[in-house]
Design brief:
- The structure is a single chain.
- This protein has about 270 residues and is of the alpha/beta class.
- The chain has one domain (about 20-265): Rossmann fold, CATH 3.40.50.300.
- The protein is about 40% helix and about 20% strand.
- It contains eleven helices and eight strands.
- An eight-stranded mixed beta sheet has the order 3-4-2-5-1-6-7-8, sandwiched between helices.
- Strand 7 (about 185-190), helix 8 (about 195-210) and strand 8 form a beta-alpha-beta unit.
- Helix 1 (about 30-45) packs across helix 11 and helix 7 crosses helix 8 (about 195-210).
- The protein is globular.
């Protein structure tokens, strides 16, 4: 299992580079990739150079969400069949993407080769952007945990459903114990009523205080970055493989994502 993020060079030794934000979740189906893609577009609209790296190795679906049909993917970079410059593509919404190939079983386990190649790719792209979003897989597999360990900040995506909250807590606990994460951010997606996100954050924080913070040196703090309402426009945009912040910017979900971007911006 992965420990604290020590693989990356110390800030004093590195040139100016992007903030790396891992977007992750305890379970699938909570809208993690939707948040990653639309958040990237909202950040780009604020004048930032943004890259989304599809780090859900083996079960990638960012290309589907963005209606892209890449000829070159991260797999080709890993195998040296293409350069990183060839693999980084423009996406709708004004940001860049580095897509992973779907269904590649060899990337479902954290082998030394996968570890080395993923680290090398991230180190190479960070000087070129202001923000890099790592759209990780769901859960706490070795691949997911290693990907998260390479990030400066972690954004947990959850919904108000009990199973999602339980899995979000499990993810937070592992990140606190194994990576010494003491500050994490939370986005509560698919919120049926305004303010429900705050209730989810409070419940999670109470459980964290009781079972995690009591077992570590420094209390673990979960910051609610915001909530995204349950909005029919999201389903429509996803079906059409469009970004809701681009095609339906006035809808509640699009405005909520724009607010997330504003809070993340420097």
């Amino acid at each position: 299992m992965t420990t604290a993020p020590t693989d990356r060079p110390a800030p004093n030794d590195a040139p100016p580079r992007a903030r790396i934000l891992a977007v992750t979740s305890g379970k699938g189906g909570v809208g993690k990739t939707f948040i990653s893609a639309n958040l990237a577009a909202a950040l780009a609209r604020r004048g930032l150079r943004v890259l989304v790296l599809d780090a859900d190795l083996g079960l990638a679906n960012l290309d589907v969400v963005l209606n892209l049909h890449p000829k070159i993917t991260l797999h080709d970079v890993f195998t040296s069949d293409a350069t990183l410059e060839q693999a980084v593509l423009p996406a709708p919404g004004g940001f860049s993407v580095l897509l992973a190939g779907s269904g590649l079983v060899e990337y479902s386990r954290l082998t030394p080769e996968v570890r080395e190649k993923l680290l090398a790719v991230i180190e190479e792209v960070t000087p070129r952007f202001d923000i890099v979003l790592l759209d990780t897989g769901a859960g706490i597999s070795d691949v997911v945990l290693y990907t998260v360990s390479l990030a400066d900040e972690v954004l947990i995506v959850a919904t108000p459903e009990p199973t999602s909250m339980t899995d979000a807590y499990a993810t937070i606990k592992v990140l606190a114990m194994q990576q010494s994460r003491r500050e994490l951010r939370l986005v509560v997606n698919q919120v049926p009523r305004a303010g429900d996100g705050r209730g989810v954050a409070l419940q999670l924080q109470q459980v964290i205080d009781r079972f995690v913070s009591s077992a570590v040196d420094t209390p673990v703090r979960l910051e609610l970055l915001g909530e995204v309402p349950l909005d029919p426009s999201v389903r429509d945009a996803v079906k059409k493989r469009q970004l809701v912040v681009e095609t339906l910017p006035g809808t509640p979900a699009a405005q909520a994502v724009s607010q997330l971007a504003a809070r993340l911006s420097p």
